[in-house]
Amino acid sequence: MQGRIHSFQSLGTVDGPGVRCVVFMQGCPLRCICCHNPDTWDPNGGEAVEVQPLVRKILRFRGYFGQRGGVTVSGGEPLLQAPFVAELFRRLKENGIHTALDTSGCFWNESAAAVLTYTDLVLLDHKYPTEADYRRFVGGSLAQTERFLTELERRQIPVWLRRVIIPQKTDREASVRQLNDVARRFSCVKKVELLPFRNLCEEKYTALGLDFPLKGTDSPSHETMQSLTALIDPIYLS
Ligand code: SF4
């Protein structure tokens, strides 16, 4: 089976537990204003790869995974190529490798369900607190993400909730308290991660002939990140 990938990171440490290979899938239907990777949006871009050679490549790195590491499939939006991801995860599980899915949860269908059959952990972006924010700043629906989270709860697949903290957009205390409340409502949520917005992608937008909606926006300060993190229940921070 063939899929299209944007890139491959052999030894990542920020997308899930331990040391991990990270496969960035090509294609995304959303248009987050803070997106760092607009070059992943085009579903026809990137590089075509077969599952089996990709598995062989990953297995070369398994010695680095240790007890906690494994493979994270990110994007783009990996569920756009759910049959490929399901097959990749199935073969990784055959080899005893931990699998994590980094997703916006913007789809729910049979193919997405097949991916979850072989998924050990979901890194779920919960990008904004309201439906109106999702429409305006993501081009998607909060209801879809919560639908996906409900499925994860039903299957009791561990979840790390993630939100990018963007000045003037998601850095209000009420926004972070709402995220903490979501974590409390779903027992599958094991961790909450607040990620500071980094303005590192203006050149990519320029190269693609696109306007970067957050041009000129600064990163949140260390103090802001600390005070917002203090609003999260400690059980979700370790
Ligand atoms: S879901 Fe991810 S890849 Fe897609 S637009 Fe948003 S940040 Fe970018």
- CATH architecture title: Alpha-Beta Barrel
- Which cofactor or ligand species appear? iron/sulfur cluster
Separation, N- and C-terminal Cα atoms: 38 Å
Q: Give the C-alpha Rg.
A: 17 Å
Mean pLDDT: 97
The number of domains is 1
DSSP strand content? 15-25%
CATH hierarchy, class: Alpha Beta
Helix content: 25-40%
Briefly note the CATH topology name. Answer: TIM Barrel
| Count of alpha and pi helical runs | 8
Low-confidence stretches: none
Based on CA inertia axes, which overall geometry fits? Answer: globular
How many β-strands, per DSSP?
A: 8
- Main sheet makeup: 8 strands, mixed
- The chain-level structural class is alpha/beta
Protein model, in words:
It is built from eight helices and eight strands; from the N terminus they run βββαβαβαβααβαβαα. It is an alpha/beta fold and 238 residues long. The chain has one domain (2-236): Aldolase class I (TIM Barrel, Alpha-Beta Barrel), CATH 3.20.20. Helix 2 links the parallel strand 4 (70-74) and strand 5 (98-103). The site of iron/sulfur cluster (SF4) has 11 residues, from loops.
Chain-wise SSE layout:
Layout: E1 2-12, E2 20-25, E3 47-50, H1 51-59, E4 70-74, H2 82-94, E5 98-103, H3 110-117, E6 121-125, H4 131-137, H5 142-155, E7 159-165, H6 173-185, E8 189-196, H7 202-208, H8 222-229
Parallel strand pairs: 2-4, 4-5, 5-6, 6-7, 7-8
Antiparallel strand pairs: 1-2, 1-3
Helix pairs in contact: 1-2, 2-3
Bound molecules: iron/sulfur cluster.
